[in-house]
């Protein structure tokens, strides 16, 4: 009985917000017991209702702000909180940047065990709205009508949305045009429970500088009724359309894209530019969703590498070559690798498109290629990594350390895994010089960061 929690579900409490979690929830502690409350800001005194009470922590629903933070701003769209696309929209943008800097600092202290790491102020964007160049929008039937929108947080209940506010307005407009065309021709929306229906997602990409638009229809089966008429309508009605693709995803899965993609109209890619280079981007290509801030991010990485023109550089997780080809303009030779064969093929095309001859891209993992390059006598002066959120595999870290490059430039979308991996490099004899966070995702909790390590 001594461990019984002294709080009950549905009871109302008042407390001061002491911190904000990595998910953007305010933390109120009552007798050292933490409640996590969405929409609360550090320093505020709030009244909340206990919605869930566990043994070690609980969740509360914000009822009233008794003492308001000066950093609080009016929310732009309440739906954005429901669906989790704009969890920080109640905070001023300066406060969002300060929060993200603190998240990076906290990760390096708690996870990486760095006591005095140089965490620089976050490089923010000029306008933290309408910045996304890509949207992946689920399609479902609600009250007998095909709808596009987004899932309510922690559920697969679709909330119809017409304006996402953080996507470029032409992307929002294209989604609605496609939605109305699908309604017009009575195309059945996907039913997740029964695994029936046709249209699962509508994916729209738009080149930030080129304005070119790609529409991808993700279908539950290859055959789509009225396909030719629908494609003609999309080509006619969506402004600046350059490509229409069908992606077939027949599995019962949360993974959006399937393996098979078919070009229904136009070219199999759109083109856009980044740091003065032109890139072809396919329906499956990874391409940062905020182009101007990606340029800031990549320029930060290039500046950190401080190439003099005589270095051999490894671009791990090279994707379609956005970082590697930019590095190639400052290096003697760049080698890139990625486990996605389509991405590597696009990287080769992009190298040719830009007339870059000192960059070579290979399909495979680091553990496959680093021994081969070692045998060939290729030693890397600088290694640049840009892994997915899970960070680096131990095998990869070991292979990098064996190479003994002079510098390691680590680009990350997850401060927690970056800090974890930073400790591995530090323990292997590398000095952490600095961490530069860059904000690509205004109104959200996400932040990118560039870390520079030099051989001690």
Helix and strand content put the structural class at alpha/beta
Can you tell me the CATH superfamily of the largest domain?
Vaccinia Virus protein VP39
Q: How many strand segments?
A: 21
Average the pLDDT over all residues and give the rounded result: 96
Distance from first to last alpha carbon: 55 Å
**Low-pLDDT residue spans:** none
Strand line-up of the largest beta sheet:
8-7-6-9-10-11-12
Task: State the helix count.
Answer: 10
- The gross shape turns out to be globular
Family: Belongs to the class I-like SAM-binding methyltransferase superfamily. RNA M5U methyltransferase family.
Organism: Ruoffia halotolerans
InterPro entries: MeTrfase_TrmA_AS, NA-bd_OB-fold, SAM-dependent_MTases_sf, TRAM_dom, U5_MeTrfase_fam
Enzyme class: transferase
Explain what the structure shows.
The structure is a single chain. This protein has 456 residues and is an alpha/beta fold. The chain has three domains: 12-72, Beta Barrel (OB fold (Dihydrolipoamide Acetyltransferase, E2P)), CATH 2.40.50.140; 105-125 and 290-455, 3-Layer(aba) Sandwich (Rossmann fold); 134-274, OB fold (Dihydrolipoamide Acetyltransferase, E2P). Helix content is 26%, strand content 31%. The chain has ten helices and 21 strands. The chain has helices at residues 78-82, 93-110, 169-184, 227-237, 291-305, 322-328, 341-353, 366-375, 394-403, 415-427; strands at residues 12-20, 25-30, 33-38, 45-53, 58-67, 134-142, 145-151, 158-160, 199-206, 213-219, 241-248, 260-266, 270-274, 277-281, 312-316, 333-338, 359-363, 382-385, 407-412, 430-438, 448-455. It has a seven-stranded mixed sheet, with helices on one face. α6 links the parallel β15 and β16 (333-338). α2 (93-110) packs parallel to α10 (415-427), α3 (169-184) packs antiparallel against α4 (227-237) and α8 (366-375) runs parallel beside α9 (394-403). The longest helix has 18 residues, at 93-110. The chain is globular. The relative contact order is 0.10. InterPro entries: MeTrfase_TrmA_AS, NA-bd_OB-fold, SAM-dependent_MTases_sf, TRAM_dom, U5_MeTrfase_fam. It is an enzyme of class 2 (transferase). One of its GO terms (biological process) is rRNA base methylation. Residues 6-64 form the TRAM domain.
């Amino acid at each position: 009985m001594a461990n019984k929690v002294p709080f009950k579900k549905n009871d109302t409490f008042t407390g001061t917000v002491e911190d904000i979690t990595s998910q953007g929830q305010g933390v109120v502690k009552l007798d050292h017991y933490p409640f996590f409350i969405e929409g609360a800001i550090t320093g505020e005194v709030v009244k909340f209702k206990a919605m869930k009470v566990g043994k070690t922590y609980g969740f509360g629903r914000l009822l009233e702000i008794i003492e308001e933070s000066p950093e609080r701003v009016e929310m732009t769209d309440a739906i954005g909180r429901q669906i989790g696309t704009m969890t920080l929209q109640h905070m001023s943008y300066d406060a969002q940047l300060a929060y993200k800097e603190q998240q990076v600092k906290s990760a390096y202290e708690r996870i990486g065990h760095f006591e005095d790491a140089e965490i620089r102020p976050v490089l923010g964007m000029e306008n933290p709205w309408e910045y996304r160049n890509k949207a992946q929008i689920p399609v479902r039937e609600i009250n007998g009508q095909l709808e596009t929108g987004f899932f309510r947080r922690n559920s697969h209940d679709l909330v119809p949305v017409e304006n996402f506010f953080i996507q470029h307005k032409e992307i929002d407009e294209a989604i609605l045009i496609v939605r109305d065309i699908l309604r017009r021709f009575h195309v059945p929306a996907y039913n997740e429970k029964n695994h029936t229906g046709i249209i699962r997602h509508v994916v729209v990409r738009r080149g930030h500088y080129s304005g070119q638009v790609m529409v991808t229809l993700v279908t539950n089966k290859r055959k789509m009724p009225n396909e030719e008429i629908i494609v003609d309508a999309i080509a006619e009605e969506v402004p600046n359309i350059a490509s229409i693709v069908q992606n077939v995803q027949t599995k019962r899965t949360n993974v959006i894209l399937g393996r098979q993609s078919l070009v229904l109209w136009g070219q199999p890619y759109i083109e856009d530019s980044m740091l003065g280079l032109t890139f072809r981007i396919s329906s499956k290509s990874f391409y940062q969703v905020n182009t101007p801030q990606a340029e800031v991010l990549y320029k930060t990485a290039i500046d950190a590498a401080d190439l003099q023109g005589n270095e051999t550089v490894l671009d791990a997780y090279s994707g379609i070559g956005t970082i590697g080809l930019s590095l190639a303009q400052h290096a003697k030779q760049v080698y890139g690798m990625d486990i996605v064969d389509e991405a590597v093929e696009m990287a080769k095309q992009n190298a040719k498109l830009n007339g870059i001859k000192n960059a070579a891209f290979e399909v495979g993992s680091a553990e496959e290629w680093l021994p081969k390059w070692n045998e060939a006598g290729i030693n890397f002066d600088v290694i640049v990594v840009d892994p997915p959120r899970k960070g680096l595999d131990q095998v990869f870290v070991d292979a990098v350390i064996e190479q003994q490059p002079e510098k390691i430039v680590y680009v990350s979308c997850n401060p927690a895994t970056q800090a974890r991996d930073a400790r591995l490099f530090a323990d292997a004899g590398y000095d952490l010089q600095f961490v530069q966070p860059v904000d690509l995702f205004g109104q959200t909790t996400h932040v990118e960061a560039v870390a520079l390590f030099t051989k001690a």
